[in-house]
Write a structure and sequence with these properties.
Shape: globular
Largest sheet: 6 strands, antiparallel
Order of helices and strands: EEEEEHEEHEHEHEHE
Number of helices: 5
Low-confidence stretches: none
Oligomer: single chain
Distance between the termini: 25 Å
Helix content: 10-25%
Radius of gyration: 18 Å
Structural class: alpha/beta
């Protein structure tokens, strides 16, 4: 990794947006920011007056841009150290330390093309949102499908933006599955990701879509194994899994 990516920079909070009751997005302005690739992440470090430090990694949610803006979407973990500070303390104009962008495997850029199959569980949608935003900004012609698993409708991150993207782009499909509770009249999936769901997600993408899966370990393994059983080349599947972070 180039040494400049390991240097900590002071970022300024430019905007804070509520995504769900437990998830917020933070727009950070980072000086001399090196343009990132969708799918990469940054490290965030908080320092207390007594010298104690806490550090976490967060996926970048925004598409690359020339203005040094980096959007992070942070889920509040009640017993954590970093996410409660972001949710309860940070206000516009505050500063935090960041370094990056980091990561070269779970990345996508317009030159990679598609078709794209994106599969997310919970906050695993964050790096995939960066891909969808960059795909829209670059007007990539390749078809794409996002299969997104959430506990309930209120937990769906970026819900309105995903609806808007799907409404304005007939090459993009958004498939939701709600595993715990569904609103009245719900017509989407209502179970964990399984083989029939993957078969429907593959519909229209050909047999070998470029696939990105991000979420809890069990979801990632189930989706990746299911796709391989359906004939998708493992070399076309990139995965990123996570446990609880603070």
């Amino acid at each position: 990794m180039p040494s400049q990516l390991l240097e900590w920079k002071i970022a300024t909070v430019a905007q804070i947006r509520d995504e769900t009751s437990e998830v917020k997005s933070f727009s950070l302005l980072v000086p001399e920011w090196r343009t990132h690739r969708p799918g990469q992440h940054v490290d965030v470090r908080l320092s207390a007056p007594d010298g104690y430090q806490a550090q976490r990694s967060y996926s970048i949610a925004s598409a690359p841009g020339p203005d040094g803006r980096v959007d992070l979407t942070v889920e509040r973990i009640a017993e954590g150290e970093v996410s409660p500070y972001f949710h309860d303390v940070l206000v516009t104009g505050d500063e935090v330390e960041v370094r990056g962008p980091i990561g070269g495997y779970f990345v996508w850029e317009p030159a990679f093309g598609g078709p794209l199959l994106l599969i997310a569980g919970g906050s695993g949608v964050v790096p995939l949102m960066a891909i969808l935003r960059e795909r829209a900004a670059a007007d990539v012609a390749a078809s794409a499908t996002l299969l997104y698993s959430s506990r309930n409708w209120d937990d769906v991150i970026y819900r309105e933006e995903l609806d808007r993207l799907a409404t304005t782009d007939d090459r993009l499909r958004i498939l939701h599955t709600l595993t715990r509770a569904q609103p009245p009249g719900w017509t989407g999936f209502a179970r964990r990701i399984d083989r029939p769901m993957l078969e429907e997600a593959l519909d229209g993408l050909g047999s070998q879509p470029l696939t990105y899966i991000c979420g809890p370990t069990l979801l990632v393994e189930a989706a990746a194994n299911g796709l391989v059983e359906l004939g998708v080349d493992p070399g076309r599947i990139r995965t990123e899994r996570f446990g609880p972070t603070s």
